[in-house]
């Protein structure tokens, strides 16, 4: 599907016909309980619980952890700039993203910039099948897929097949379980994701506030809202600890590589658009000064930063399509076409992103495309999806990117490395940018 009106019907207006995504069985108990692998009312129930984790108020609580990571990042860039060596932007973004997750999700203080071979990072790279860390061969992954698709129960329950690195999965699950147990025994709170998910689970267990009128923070959240009155009281068949561990692992698994790729894309655009980089640098310095304190509220006032991030993601083909599964026969409005139940529907994103009807200068990289005065089509921006099944961690992902960019452009200038290509080519099979993203960081004059 590449028609915008039909996409709106599928993602938002007639969402009840397209609640699910295609799933695959797994012998891993946490993988099977991740929100992305749940369907129907089970998915809706967990989605409503998790939606309270990523409000602005919750992110404000997490911000001190992310800000400390930003300070470590700035110290690392000082050393890199002094050496004058090229570094890969995605790898650097991976360290930023991973340390943010370690602190804000797992309650662990980590500094992957100083210690890139630490166990936490190595296990993370194994879990996400990063190049050089993948334990399973491509052939074995194909065989597992065939078995789990053809004989899901046999493959998952008898053979216990999984796409996850079991040692890495258990490593992170144990960290979460130990932290969860300690918080319960001591009452200690750290305001990280473990605390926040636990609080939302407790609210849900006690009946929650689902009948109260909800105020939405923005249009994106409003269109993602679910009507709690239509959700059946579905039994989850899972204990609270398993549910917490599964969602924390999902947040890590879904957010680590995507955020580091997004950071790499932003660095590429900064290198290729020097005028825009200077404009962003001046906005950041004007807001925080050279050494002023970086705060949550002031960061959310950086309008050009918001536009630059959105434009970088719009013009980079990181998410080529969205997928939904038709859960009951659906007649496409205004046509005689009926989509049968069980059909997988793919919504193609690049056409929406590059349509001149959606952005004032759609064919070019131009942060002003997201200036409200230029009336960008909000629905057409699909990097995080739209509707109730959009990316629930969008606000957190954007906050991590903002922290990294602020500490990066405030004192440093990004210059393209020797092999950086004019146009990024994303190799989705191998999960990297072809040719890499080499960047040189230069310390700006008069920066302490």
Task: Kindly describe this structure.
This protein is 50% helix and 7% strand. The longest helix has 33 residues, at 240-272. The chain is globular, with a radius of gyration of 22 Å. The termini are far apart. It is built from 17 helices and nine strands. Helix 5 (89-104) packs antiparallel against helix 12 and helix 9 (166-186) crosses helix 12. The strands form four sheets. It has a three-stranded antiparallel sheet. A two-stranded antiparallel ribbon has the order 2-5. A two-stranded antiparallel ribbon has the order 3-4. The chain is mostly helical.
Main attributes?
mainly alpha; two-stranded antiparallel ribbon; 9 strands; globular
Unreliable stretches covering 5 or more consecutive residues = none
Taking all Cα atoms into account, the compactness measure Rg is: 22 Å
In terms of DSSP E residues, the strand content is 5-15%
Q: Quickly give the structural class.
A: mainly alpha
The main pleated sheet reads as: 3 strands, antiparallel
Share of helix, binned: 40-55%
Distance between the termini: 52 Å
What does the overall shape look like? globular
Q: What string, H for helix and E for strand, traces the elements in order? A: HHHHEHHHHHHHHHHHEEEEHHEEEE
How many strand segments? Answer: 9
């Amino acid at each position: 599907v590449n028609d915008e009106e039909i996409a709106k019907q599928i993602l938002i207006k007639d969402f009840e016909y397209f609640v699910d995504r295609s799933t695959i069985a797994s012998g891993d108990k946490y993988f099977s309980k991740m929100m992305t692998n749940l369907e129907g009312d089970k998915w809706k129930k967990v989605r409503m619980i998790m939606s309270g984790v990523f409000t602005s108020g919750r992110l404000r609580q997490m911000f001190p952890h992310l800000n400390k990571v930003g300070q470590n990042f700035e110290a690392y860039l000082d050393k890199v700039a002094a050496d004058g060596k090229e570094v890969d932007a995605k790898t650097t973004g991976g360290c930023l993203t991973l340390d943010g997750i370690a602190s804000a999700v797992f309650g662990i203080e980590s500094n992957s910039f100083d210690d890139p071979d630490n166990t936490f990072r190595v296990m993370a790279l194994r879990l996400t099948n990063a190049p050089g860390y993948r334990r399973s061969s491509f052939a074995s992954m194909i065989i597992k897929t065939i078995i789990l698709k053809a004989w899901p129960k046999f493959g998952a329950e008898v053979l216990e097949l999984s796409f996850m690195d079991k040692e890495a999965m258990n490593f992170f699950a144990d960290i979460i379980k130990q932290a969860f147990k300690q918080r319960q025994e001591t009452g200690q709170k750290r305001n990280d994701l473990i605390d926040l998910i636990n609080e939302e689970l407790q609210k849900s267990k006690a009946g929650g506030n689902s009948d109260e009128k909800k105020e939405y923070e923005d249009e994106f959240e409003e269109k993602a809202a679910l009507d709690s009155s239509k959700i059946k009281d579905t039994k989850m068949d899972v204990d609270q600890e398993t549910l917490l561990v599964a969602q924390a692992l999902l947040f890590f698994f879904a957010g680590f590589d995507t955020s580091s790729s997004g950071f790499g894309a932003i660095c590429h655009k900064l290198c290729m658009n020097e005028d825009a980089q200077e404009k962003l640098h001046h906005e950041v310095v004007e807001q925080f000064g050279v050494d002023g304190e970086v705060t949550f509220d002031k960061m959310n006032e950086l309008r050009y930063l918001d536009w630059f991030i959105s434009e970088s993601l719009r013009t980079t083909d990181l998410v080529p399509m969205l997928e939904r599964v038709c859960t009951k026969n659906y007649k496409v409005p205004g046509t005689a076409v009926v989509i049968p139940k069980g059909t997988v529907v793919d919504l193609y994103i690049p056409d929406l992103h590059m349509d001149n009807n959606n952005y004032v200068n759609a064919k070019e990289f131009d942060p002003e495309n997201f200036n409200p005065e230029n009336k960008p089509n909000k629905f057409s921006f699909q990097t995080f999806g739209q509707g109730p099944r959009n990316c629930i961690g969008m606000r957190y992902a954007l906050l991590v990117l903002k922290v990294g960019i602020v500490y990066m452009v405030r004192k440093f200038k990004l210059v393209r490395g020797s092999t950086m290509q004019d146009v990024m080519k994303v190799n989705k099979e191998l999960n990297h940018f072809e040719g890499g993203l080499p960047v040189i960081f230069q310390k700006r004059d008069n920066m302490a």
